[in-house]
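Project outcomes to date are best conveyed with an example. Our students and postdoctoral researchers have been running inverse folding experiments weekly, and each run begins with a structure described purely in C-alpha cells. The record below, which covers 369 residues, was selected by the lab manager from last quarter's runs and is presented without edits.
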C-alpha cells in the first residue's frame, strides 16, 4: 500500500525583508560598534541569505509595532505577549498556505478531509490552530486532529510519516498537514553567540500538504521509506527552551561538525532499505538549516550542487523557517515535475533538529501520462 501527496502549498507573511536591513536592526538592538559590529556583519554575509520574512514589521527599521520604541527595546516583550502575537497571526498565514495547496485541485471538497495534522514549535494555545481551521474551513466536527508540537526543524517529516501510516490503514483517508512557524517573534537581544546566530538565520512561514490514500489525477508523489536516528553527542548544541522573554534557541556553531560526523553512517540504513545508491537519487530536499549544514551534507554524501540547488534557493530567499523549510524545498522540486506528465524520479529528504535528531525519507515521483 502507498500514500500519495497530491499537493503542497506555501505562504510567507508580507514582502521579503533584505538580510542587510535585518542586520541594521540587530546592530542597533544589540548596541554593537567597532569590532563587535564587524563580526556580526561578517556572520550575516556568511549565511547565504538574501531575504527573510516576519509577521513583525519592526525588523525593517522603518516602524515599531511590536517592540517598544526605545533604544534598548525595553520593556522587552514577554512570553505572553509573543504567544498573543502568534495566536493573532497563525490562522491567516495557515489559510494562505492551505489555499495555495488546494487551489490547484479543482473539485476537491474540504468536507472530504478526514484527518488534520498541525505542526509548530514556535507557538501554542488551546483551543488551538487545529480547531480554528476546522471552523474556518467548514471541516467535519469529527475530523481526527493531531498536534505535533515542539519537535523543531525535522517535525514535517514526522507529520508526513504519520499521514503515510494513516493512509495505509484507511483507504478513504485524506490528510491535511499544516506546518506553521513564526520564528522571528522569539528574537533575543542578549549577546550570547547562539542567540546571535539564531537571530541571523530564522524566519517565518507556513506550508500545507494534502496526503491521501488514493492517487490523484496528475503526478504521483509517494513516500517509500522513513528513517530516524540520534547523534547524542550533539544534544547540547541544538536545543529549544521556553524562557521568560520568548523561546530561547541554542544553536551552536559546532552543529555542522556534529552532522558531518554522523550523516554518512545515518544514511546507510535508509539507502539499504530502499536498495538505492546516492548516485540514483535525482533530487535532494535537505532542510536548509544553514549554508554550512548544506555544504557539509553535500560533501559527506558526495552530492553535486545541481541536485541540491532548491535547498540553497529556499535558504537564500526565505532563511530557516524551521519545520516549514523542507516542504518549501519539496514544493520547488514537484513544481518542476508537474509540467511533465511522463517525468519520473527519486527524492531524498532529510531534516535536522534538537537531539541532534536526523530524520529522512525517500519519495518516488512520477507523471500520470
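After processing, the design step wrote out the following sequence:
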Amino acid at each position: 500500500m502507498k500514500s500519495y501527496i497530491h499537493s503542497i502549498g506555501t505562504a510567507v507573511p508580507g514582502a521579503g525583508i533584505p538580510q542587510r536591513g535585518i542586520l541594521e536592526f540587530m546592530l542597533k538592538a544589540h548596541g554593537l560598534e567597532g569590532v563587535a559590529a564587524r563580526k556580526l556583519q561578517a556572520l550575516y554575509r556568511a549565511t547565504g541569505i538574501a531575504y527573510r520574512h516576519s509577521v513583525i514589521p519592526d525588523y525593517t527599521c522603518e516602524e515599531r509595532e511590536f517592540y517598544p520604541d526605545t533604544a534598548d527595546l525595553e520593556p522587552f516583550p514577554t512570553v505572553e505577549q509573543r504567544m498573543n502575537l502568534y495566536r493573532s497571526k497563525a490562522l491567516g498565514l495557515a489559510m494562505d498556505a492551505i489555499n495555495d495547496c488546494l487551489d490547484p485541485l479543482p473539485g476537491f471538497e474540504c468536507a472530504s478531509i478526514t484527518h488534520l495534522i498541525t505542526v509548530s514549535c514556535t507557538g501554542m494555545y488551546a483551543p488551538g490552530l487545529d480547531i480554528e481551521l476546522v471552523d474556518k474551513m467548514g471541516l467535519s466536527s469529527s475530523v481526527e486532529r493531531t498536534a505535533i508540537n515542539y519537535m523543531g526543524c525535522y517535525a514535517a517529516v514526522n507529520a508526513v510519516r504519520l499521514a503515510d501510516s494513516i493512509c495505509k490503514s484507511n483507504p478513504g483517508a485524506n490528510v491535511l498537514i499544516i506546518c506553521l512557524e513564526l520564528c522571528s517573534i522569539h528574537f533575543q537581544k542578549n549577546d550570547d553567540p547562539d542567540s546571535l546566530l539564531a537571530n541571523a538565520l530564522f524566519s517565518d512561514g507556513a506550508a500545507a500538504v494534502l496526503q491521501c490514500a488514493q492517487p490523484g489525477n496528475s503526478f504521483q508523489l509517494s513516500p517509500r521509506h522513513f528513517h530516524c536516528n540520534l547523534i547524542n553527542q550533539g544534544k547540547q548544541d541544538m536545543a529549544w527552551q521556553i524562557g521568560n522573554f520568548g523561546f530561547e534557541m541554542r544553536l551552536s556553531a559546532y552543529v555542522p561538525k556534529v552532522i558531518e560526523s554522523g550523516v554518512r553512517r545515518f544514511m546507510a540504513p535508509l539507502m539499504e532499505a530502499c536498495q538505492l545508491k546516492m548516485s540514483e537519487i535525482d533530487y535532494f530536499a535537505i532542510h536548509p538549516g544553514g549554508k554550512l549544514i548544506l555544504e557539509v551534507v553535500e560533501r559527506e554524501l558526495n552530492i553535486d550542487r545541481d541536485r541540491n540547488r532548491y535547498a540553497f534557493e529556499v535558504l537564500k530567499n526565505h532563511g530557516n523557517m524551521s519545520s516549514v523549510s523542507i516542504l518549501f524545498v519539496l514544493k520547488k522540486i514537484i513544481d518542476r515535475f508537474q509540467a511533465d506528465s511522463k517525468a519520473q524520479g527519486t527524492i531524498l529528504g532529510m531534516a535536522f533538529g534538537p537531539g541532534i535528531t536526523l530524520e529522512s525519507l525517500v519519495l518516488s515521483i512520477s507523471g500520470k501520462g
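The chain has a mean pLDDT of 90. The two ends are 21 Å apart (CA to CA). The training component of this project remains on track.
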